[in-house]
């Protein structure tokens, strides 16, 4: 069968006559197929559609489909249908098109938790699915199945928790339907007109209640009257029957009352008839020795745990190991009403307090006093509550103290709304996944440890996947100090492209809705808002040019920690945890008196922030000092902080769990929010601030090193500048870095001579590396592959400083030797690298004498590495220059001018504090 025979002849004749301009009889099969291919491969109507808008409108994942596999298949099929329907096969057929297709598929994934999981996997684990739609399909299906399992687990747990409440509601509804209290029910029988139903009473006796027959052929219902009368006129009829107003006015009255009812909903209390204590509240229970469940009271005011003698007998019948012990002396207790109880015996039991959030298990047995009492409750004493971290009196004292302080006192809550923080189901899925992962990896033991970890994580109410309309943290607001000559600054109105203008309008409307900024038409200050395109994306982010305001601000004299020094605290620690503050600066309040200074302008208006914005002078230091104040009792013991990156460390899993619990409690107390997706717990090796940390030392991120090694030779000064800066940040573990990178540094300086050294200016300068510079470029990459891990200083080991210098530069290495052998030369000792440094001699330093150049690295080390070299047993210096040894010989005399010229006086002061040994080592030449 030919193609021509399958065609509609009338349509084919029209195409031949008007489009292809060939006679119908002479048209060939090849010509038909060629023309059809042209039609298929062209876009619809010959115009490129707005692809992003097209997929935003049509691409959806059907969450009503319960089969995860079918849901994912239908989602990808829908994407293919949209592409085919709009003639976009060629557009998405290239490698770039497939990458964009993967971006679109990831962007429209639902729910949000699934999309975040896929994005995290692509960023941190494997990027193959960003350019391969088949790999993306497998990844989406895998993550969707994992989330479905967790979702079902959480849903089942909720259903089991809500089942008792639903049963209570059902029984309550049956009692109301019968119109009588359970205890007053009697069997009533009358003529049946239809249905009968059976009601189960509290005594488990079965009876029939029959509905009386209504008169007439049809049952008519008498409409009840409103108790409060009409909402409009107050008369004895419903609002819908009121003849005085029309339907629009009736709807307005109902809407007004509905909004009022919603705002007052949290303050309403349902009135109930007086009943017994047992019937008035759902009592929590405690499990004793995993055998006996008893209701418990945790707010009695008693210092002791108290149990009745009858309950002890019940427990002994269930557990033969329970023994009653005699107390050293009788303990008198005062009961409610003034009655005095005396306890002469006690019992040690394992307690598990069952709460709405989960069980709280006591790790060791707790002593309970045995009394003769008819009370059916176990009394939990204040001593036990204090051990669990609950001290009501102390919390009330702290609350009272906060109310006495002004708004500058740390921890003040005045003016900041308090509300019950809750996290959504997506957060619960992430938290549950974290716990399951640690248990499956064998880090956390199932049972008690697992329950404790889950309780710790779920007790923290500050988990957020995205920062919403939460109130700011309960910390002192940021105050800005302007310079004496400061004057209000207002930028000129900028013209943005339609795309950027639309982004700024939507973004700032959302900020206004969240309460993070307010629209301020009377502001005297305004810096420019800068929409910046995100890398490898069509989306934007907003940055504000606060340089004019910062130039008129006196910055905080804060202190950022030195990571080189502080990381010594991680020495020998087995387990680590990191926490990430979500939108860290936006969590901090900005004092109202200084909000106007940080206002910014878009093409739609001026907006004033109510939180601390990123980019202002004091933002980073204020956040650092604020969180340090919150966690001050844990700093230098188990916590390191670098702005929004928090590192915790401990020797064991139990110790780290204690640290995590303490940190989360403090952060929860002050209202800070954390991102659970970026938090990692119980890691034996952790990536933090670009470094890899474990118990043995500190190294650089292997992924960062691999990324630098894959960079092609730079074609602009900006690319060369980026490469040199990135490798320079890692130079502490790169031996001989200064000499190897020198040709690249000289080329960069030459390219940027006479212009700004900014990235924007450098991007416009084209360069081409010479053969020697290309060799230097490859040598730096090779040096990165040999990057050494820096070990932690050990005071018990011998410290060594090896220095060397040449006409063009200098270098030094600081190492330590654990098993120092005096009879062995320095090159045969087992060294552990602590740090290496090096520079080139430039300017006037290039004209120094040889002895000055040889002495400089030693002096530089004593100035810059005092924290490392100032140790009880001193350190040894090794060099290859005989004249330096001559300078420090105790029996030699030198001119005072020579000693001052070479800064030997500085080294003399070290010889008093430490045992300084300078020796000649022929092998140091070429070490650095």
Question: What is the CATH T-level topology of the largest domain?
Answer: Alpha-Beta Plaits
Distance between termini? 81 Å
Unreliable parts = 180-222, 262-281, 401-421, 911-917, 921-928
Average pLDDT confidence is 78
Extended strand count: 29
Question: Strand content of the residues, in percent?
Answer: 15-25%
Number of domains: 6
The strand order across the widest sheet is: 9-8-3-4-11
Oligomer: single chain
Number of helices: 30
Largest sheet composition: 5 strands, mixed
Shape: globular
Question: What's the gyration radius in Å?
Answer: 38 Å
CATH 2nd-level architecture of the largest domain: 2-Layer Sandwich
CATH fourth-tier homologous superfamily of the largest domain: Reverse transcriptase/Diguanylate cyclase domain
Name of the top-level CATH class of the largest domain:
Alpha Beta
Structural class: alpha+beta
Q: Helical proportion?
A: 25-40%
Domain Reverse transcriptase: 513-693
Region (Disordered): 155-226
GO biological process, one term: proteolysis
Protein name: Reverse transcriptase domain-containing protein
What does this structure look like?
The longest helix is centred in the N-terminal third of the chain and has 46 residues, at 133-178. By secondary structure, this protein is of the alpha+beta class. The protein folds into six domains: 3-41, no CATH class; 51-150, no CATH class; 282-390, Cathepsin D, subunit A, domain 1; 498-695, Reverse transcriptase/Diguanylate cyclase domain (Alpha-Beta Plaits, 2-Layer Sandwich); 700-785, no CATH class; 793-924, Ribonuclease H-like superfamily/Ribonuclease H (Nucleotidyltransferase, domain 5), CATH 3.30.420. The strands form seven sheets. It has a five-stranded mixed sheet. The termini are far apart. The protein has 30 helices and 29 strands. It is globular and about 95 Å long. Residues 513-693 form the Reverse transcriptase domain. Residues 155-226 are annotated as: Disordered. This is Reverse transcriptase domain-containing protein. It holds the Pfam family RVT_1. Keywords: Aspartyl protease, Endonuclease, Hydrolase, Nuclease, Nucleotidyltransferase, Protease, RNA-directed DNA polymerase, Transferase.
């Amino acid at each position: 069968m030919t193609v021509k025979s399958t065609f509609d002849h009338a349509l084919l004749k029209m195409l031949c006559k008007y489009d292809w301009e060939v006679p119908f009889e002479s048209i060939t099969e090849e010509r038909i197929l060629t023309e059809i291919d042209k039609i298929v491969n062209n876009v619809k109507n010959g115009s490129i559609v707005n692809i992003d808008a097209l997929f935003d409108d049509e691409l959806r994942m059907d969450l009503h489909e319960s089969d995860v596999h079918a849901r994912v298949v239908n989602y990808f099929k829908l994407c293919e249908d949209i592409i085919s329907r709009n003639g976009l096969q060629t557009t998405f057929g290239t490698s770039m098109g497939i990458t964009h297709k993967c971006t679109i598929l990831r962007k429209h994934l639902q729910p949000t938790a699934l999309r975040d999981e896929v994005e995290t996997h692509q960023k941190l684990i494997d990027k193959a699915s960003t350019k391969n739609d088949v790999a993306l399909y497998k990844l989406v299906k895998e993550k969707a199945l994992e989330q479905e399992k967790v979702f079902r687990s959480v849903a089942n747990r909720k259903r089991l928790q809500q089942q008792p409440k639903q049963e209570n509601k059902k029984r309550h509804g049956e009692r109301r339907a019968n119109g009588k209290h359970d205890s007053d029910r009697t069997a009533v029988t009358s003529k049946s007109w239809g249905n009968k139903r059976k009601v189960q009473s509290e005594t488990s006796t079965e009876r029939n209640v029959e509905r009386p027959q209504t008169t007439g052929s049809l049952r008519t219902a008498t409409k009840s009257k409103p108790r409060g009368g009409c909402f409009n006129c107050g008369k004895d009829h419903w609002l819908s029957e009121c003849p005085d107003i029309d339907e629009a006015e009736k709807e307005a009255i109902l809407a007004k009352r509905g909004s009022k009812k919603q705002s007052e909903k949290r303050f309403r209390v349902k009135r109930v008839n007086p009943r017994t204590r047992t019937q008035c509240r759902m009592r929590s229970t405690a499990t004793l020795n995993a055998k006996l469940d008893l209701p418990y009271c945790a707010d009695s005011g008693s210092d002791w745990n108290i149990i009745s003698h009858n309950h002890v007998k019940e427990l002994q019948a269930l557990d033969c190991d329970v023994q009653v012990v005699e107390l050293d002396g009788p303990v008198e207790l005062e009961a409610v009403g003034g009655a005095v109880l005396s306890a002469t015996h006690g019992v040690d039991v394992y307690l598990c307090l069952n709460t709405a959030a989960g069980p709280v298990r006591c790790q060791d047995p707790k002593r309970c006093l045995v009394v003769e009492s008819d009370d059916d409750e176990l009394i939990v004493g204040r001593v036990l509550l204090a051990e669990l971290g609950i001290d009501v009196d102390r919390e009330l004292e702290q609350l009272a103290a906060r109310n006495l302080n002004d708004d500058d006192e740390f921890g003040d809550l005045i003016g900041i709304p308090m509300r019950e923080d809750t996290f959504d189901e997506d957060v619960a899925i992430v938290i549950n996944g974290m716990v399951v992962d640690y248990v499956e990896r064998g880090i956390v033991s199932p049972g008690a440890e697992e329950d404790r970890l889950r309780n710790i994580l779920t007790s923290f109410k500050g988990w957020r996947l995205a920062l919403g309309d939460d109130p700011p943290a309960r910390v002192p607001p940021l105050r800005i100090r302007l310079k004496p000559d400061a004057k209000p600054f207002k930028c000129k109105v900028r013209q943005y492209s339609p795309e950027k203008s639309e982004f700024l309008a939507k973004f700032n409307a959302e900020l206004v809705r969240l309460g993070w900024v307010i629209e301020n038409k009377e502001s005297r200050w305004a810096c420019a808002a800068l929409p910046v395109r995100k890398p490898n994306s069509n989306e934007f982010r907003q940055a504000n040019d606060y340089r004019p305001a910062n130039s008129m601000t006196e910055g905080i004299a804060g202190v950022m920690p030195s990571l080189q020094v502080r990381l010594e605290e991680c020495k020998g620690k087995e387990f680590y945890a990191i926490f990430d503050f979500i939108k860290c600066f936006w969590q901090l309040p900005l004092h109202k008196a200084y909000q106007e200074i940080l206002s910014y302008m878009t093409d739609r208006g001026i907006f004033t922030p109510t939180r601390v914005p990123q980019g202002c002078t004091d933002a980073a230091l204020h956040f650092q000092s604020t969180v340090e104040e919150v966690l001050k009792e844990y700093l230098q013991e188990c916590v390191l902080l670098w702005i929004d990156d928090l590192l915790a460390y401990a020797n064991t899993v139990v110790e780290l769990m204690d640290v995590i619990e303490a940190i989360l409690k403090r952060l929860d107390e002050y209202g800070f929010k954390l991102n659970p997706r970026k938090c990692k717990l119980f890691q034996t090796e952790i990536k933090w601030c670009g470094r890899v940390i474990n118990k043995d030392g500190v190294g650089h991120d292997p992924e960062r090193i691999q990324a630098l090694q894959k960079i092609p030779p730079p074609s602009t000064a900006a690319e060369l500048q980026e490469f040199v800066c990135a490798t320079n940040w890692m130079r502490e573990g790169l031996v001989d870095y200064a000499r190897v990178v020198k040709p690249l540094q000289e080329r960069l300086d030459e390219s940027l001579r006479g212009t700004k050294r900014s990235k924007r200016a450098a991007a416009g300068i084209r360069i081409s590396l010479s053969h020697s510079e290309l060799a230097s470029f490859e040598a730096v990459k090779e040096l990165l592959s040999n990057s050494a891990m820096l070990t932690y200083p050990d005071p018990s080991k011998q410290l060594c400083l090896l220095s060397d210098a040449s006409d063009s530069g200098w270098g030094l290495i600081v190492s330590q030797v654990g098993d120092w052998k005096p009879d062995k030369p320095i090159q045969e000792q087992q060294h552990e690298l602590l740090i290496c440094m090096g520079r080139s001699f430039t300017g006037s330093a290039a004209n120094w004498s040889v002895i000055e150049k040889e002495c400089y690295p030693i002096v530089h080390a004593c100035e810059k590495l005092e924290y490392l070299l100032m140790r009880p047993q001193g350190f040894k210096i090794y060099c290859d220059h005989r004249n330096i040894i001559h300078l420090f010989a105790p029996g030699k005399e030198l001119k005072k001018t020579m000693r001052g010229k070479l800064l030997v006086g500085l080294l003399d002061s070290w010889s008093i504090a430490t045992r300084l040994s300078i020796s000649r080592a022929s092998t140091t030449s070429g070490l650095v």
